[in-house]
Amino acid sequence: MTALHPRRGDDPAPPPTPRTSPSPHRAPGHRFYLSVTVKFVLSVLFALSWTGASVWISLPWITDLSRLTGDPAAWIIVSLVAFLPGFVVALLSLSLLLDRQPPFRVSNPVTPLTIIVAARNEQDGIRETIRCIGGSDYAGPVTVILADNGSEDATARFAELAAAEADVALLVVREPAPGKSHALNTALRQVTTPYVITVDADTLLHREALRRLISRLESSPADTVAVAGAVLVRNSRVNLLTRMQEWDYYLGIAAVKRMQGLYRSTLVAQGAFSVYRTANVTAIGGWPDAIGEDIVVTWKLLEQGGRVLFEPTAVAFTEAPTTVLHFMRQRARWARGMFEGLRAVPPWRQKHRLAGTISGIDFLIPLLDIGYGLIWVPGLVLFVAVGNTAVVSVWALAVLPITLVIYGSLRAFQSNRVFGPLGLHVRRNRFGYLTFLLGYQVLCSYASLVGYVQFLAGSARRWK
């Protein structure tokens, strides 16, 4: 089984020597500069061209399907299972090819910062979390606030012991009202530093994570209000489910965040590991009482006209769900959180049109899940069981080489541009990779569909 981790017994490789860029948007060595808007337009045009070619190629399929379902239904089915996914994948692919993240202009920041760790009954893991913070190579002063959200165990005591051992400045605040947002806001009132970072109680920071996260913030334009770190799986050796999630975090989630970061509109500065400008978070009232509190707070920051970026080399490792039930509940919460964000800050209220366009793509995500979960999967079952090719046929095999090329490119980027400089490597996880490619989306789509139904029905919220 595999996991992502530093090489045991070795210090991570030293970071590459930072270079000075003449512009915060242009990397040296490039003879011409494409603006972010131009890159987005090119990516959209490429995605539309790809979709147009797909429509032309698919006309015989639509004709055959229409004999069974009628023309409107045939077009809807093929659009949901082929055209729409193709458009999104093409948009993502060219965006990533055009992504040229500028080097750090500030390589060794020293600005004081505060880390909030919201915790409830986390005595088993909180010591390791605090120790990793204490082992950071960040040169500036760091204060940790443990926001104890009504713990009934020894979370606070264990955190204090770990802080004393690791020489970490720790402040414990207690918030009895259940809900992560309440704990975060109680801690926020104690923050006096310009930057505030949130770290989940089960998340371990790489020793360079803080430095790289703040370097990206201070190397970016002044209106950058938050930067999301890269969160990866630390417990992938547990079972097949965690093996698949390892690849999802390492490839899928990281790729989407890279695309959004390119367009200065990372849609989730996730609570597991992100930095915010304290004044900006305070100005919008802190974290809202929502399942997706990190989603909503990010969208509110974007609404104020700020940029939210992503730093792929600021790496943290988190505990992924180990049971299907826990996984389904987590992804249902994520889906509900996305809807909460759309309701709280609709795309048309975003100050920057590009941010509104990127957030508007989230309206397409439920359609993708409907197409995959309610059309593609049943069609695949019919194909395998009785040879029915109405929805899925041998032409579906053409998707596999494209998928392998895309994920192969993402693996090369992560290996060469992220893990290499950090002294990390990926242990072999071939079976997990294969099942991730072939079956993982089934779980994700059905969990998301459950979340959408729960949101629309107004079901009671579950925090764990």
From TrEMBL:
Pro residues bias: start-end ranges: 12-21
TM region positions: 40-62, 74-98, 363-386, 392-410, 431-455
Keyword Flavoprotein: no
GO molecular function: glycosyltransferase activity
UniProt key word Glycosyltransferase: yes
A Pfam family the protein falls into: Glyco_tranf_2_3
Domain of life of the native organism: Bacteria
Gene3D superfamilies, alphabetized: Spore Coat Polysaccharide Biosynthesis Protein SpsA, Chain A
Keywords linked to the UniProt accession: Glycosyltransferase, Membrane, Transferase, Transmembrane, Transmembrane helix
InterPro entries xref list: Nucleotide-diphossugar_trans (IPR029044)
Region span, Disordered: 1-27
SUPFAM superfamilies named among the record's database cross-references: Nucleotide-diphospho-sugar transferases
Family recorded in the similarity comment: Belongs to the glycosyltransferase 2 family.
Protein name per Swiss-Prot or TrEMBL: Glycosyltransferase family 2 protein
Taxonomic lineage from the root: Bacteria, Bacillati, Actinomycetota, Actinomycetes, Micrococcales
